[in-house]
Design a protein that fits this description.
Elements (H helix, E strand, L loop, with lengths): L10 H6 L7 H12 L9 H8 L3 H10 L5 H13 L12 H6 L2 H17 L4 H13 L3 E4 L5 H11 L6 E4 L6 H5 L7 E6 L6 H12 L2 E7 L10 E5 L11 H17 L1 H18 L3
Parallel strand pairs: 1-2, 1-3, 3-4, 4-5
C-alpha cells in the first residue's frame, strides 16, 4: 500500500493516475495541472488551455478522462481541496514579465523555499517513523536510481552506511540488477528514486521487489506516476524557475531520512560509528 494523506479520488491523484497513458498535448496539460493544481479553480477552460499551451478540446477530453462530467465539476473539486489549506493548491503561475525583472538569485531562492515547504507539508511523523524502523531493522538496504537520481543514491548510502552495516547502491559499474536482487527477502528494504526521466529498469525492479515482499520506499517528483508496488510513496516538489528542475527538496528529504536513521539506529549505530572513527585514525584516512 502507499501511505498518503491524499484520498484516492482527489484531483491530483486522478491526474497522476493517467500520466503513463497520455498523448504529448495531454501530458503538457497534466504537467501544468500538477505544478499549479490550484489554477483550475480560477480559470475558465479556455484560459487554462492557453496557459498550458494546448487546445480547448484537449482540456475537455482530459477532464472527462479524469472521471469528471464537466469542467465545472472538476473546478468544484479543486476549490474544495484549495479551501482545505493544502499548500500544493496555493502555488500560482507568475507572469513571465514579472519574473524576468526579478533577480535570478531571488527567484531561485523563492522557488527552493516553495518546493521545500510543499514537500515537507505532506510528511507526517508516523509515516517517517515507519520508514526509519524498516530501514534500521532491514538485514539489507538496497538503493536504486539512475541518471539525475544517481547522486541522491550515493549521498543517502554514504550517510546511512555510518550506522547501518549493509547499505548497497545498485547497480555499480559492471554489475547487474539481478546480482543484487537475487535472494531479496521480506525483511529487506528497497529505496527507489524515481525522479522523472528514469531508465526502463525501474518497472522491472519494482515488480521483482514487490514479489519478494520487501518494503519499498519510492521517492519521486510530482510529475512522475505513482507506483502501486511502493509501501511508501513520497512526491518531492521539483518545479524549477528555468529550464532545469529544482532538486533542493529531494536532497532535504535525503538529509531528513539519514538523520532519523542515525537516531533510530540507537546503541548499535553509535557503536558502529565509533568503530569507523577509530579506524579513520588508525588508517590516517582523514
Amino acid at each position: 500500500m502507499t501511505s498518503s494523506k491524499t484520498s484516492a479520488n482527489s484531483f491530483v491523484r486522478r491526474v497522476r493516475g493517467q500520466l503513463e497513458t497520455l498523448s504529448a498535448a495531454e501530458r503538457r496539460l497534466a504537467d501544468f495541472m500538477l505544478e499549479f493544481p490550484g489554477e483550475l479553480a480560477s480559470y475558465a477552460a479556455s484560459e487554462l488551455a492557453a496557459l498550458a499551451g494546448v487546445s480547448n478540446a484537449t482540456v475537455s477530453r482530459f477532464i472527462r478522462r479524469l472521471g469528471y462530467a464537466s469542467y465545472e465539476e472538476a473546478k468544484r473539486d479543486v476549490r474544495r481541496e484549495k479551501e482545505s489549506g493544502s499548500p500544493l493548491f496555493q502555488a500560482v503561475k507568475s507572469d513571465a514579465g514579472g519574473r524576468a525583472q526579478a533577480s535570478l538569485i531571488a527567484t531561485h531562492l523563492e522557488q527552493s523555499q516553495s518546493n521545500l515547504a510543499r514537500t515537507f507539508a505532506q510528511l507526517n511523523n508516523e509515516q517517517m517513523q515507519d520508514i526509519v524502523t524498516a530501514l534500521v531493522e532491514a538485514p539489507r538496504v538496497l538503493i536504486f536510481g539512475t541518471r539525475g537520481s544517481h547522486g541522491f543514491v550515493r549521498y543517502l548510502r554514504w550517510q546511512m552506511l555510518r550506522v547501518l552495516p549493509s547499505v548497497v547502491a545498485m547497480p555499480e559499474a559492471g554489475e547487474s540488477l539481478a546480482e543484487h536482487l537475487a535472494g531479496l527477502a521480506p525483511q529487506d528494504c528497497l529505496v527507489v528514486f524515481g525522479i522523472r526521466r528514469q531508465t526502463r529498469q525501474i518497472s522491472g525492479l519494482l515488480e521483482v521487489a514487490s514479489k519478494s515482499g520487501c518494503k519499498i520506499l519510492f521517492i519521486c517528483d510530482a510529475m512522475s506516476p505513482d507506483r502501486r508496488e511502493a509501501t511508501w510513496s513520497i512526491q518531492c516538489q521539483c518545479a524549477g524557475p528555468g529550464l532545469l528542475d529544482n532538486h533542493v527538496s529531494v536532497m532535504a528529504l535525503c538529509d531528513l531520512v539519514a538523520s532519523m536513521v542515525m537516531e533510530g539506529a540507537g546503541a548499535a549505530g553509535r557503536k558502529r560509528l565509533a568503530s569507523i572513527e577509530l579506524l579513520h585514525e588508525d588508517l590516517e584516512e582523514l
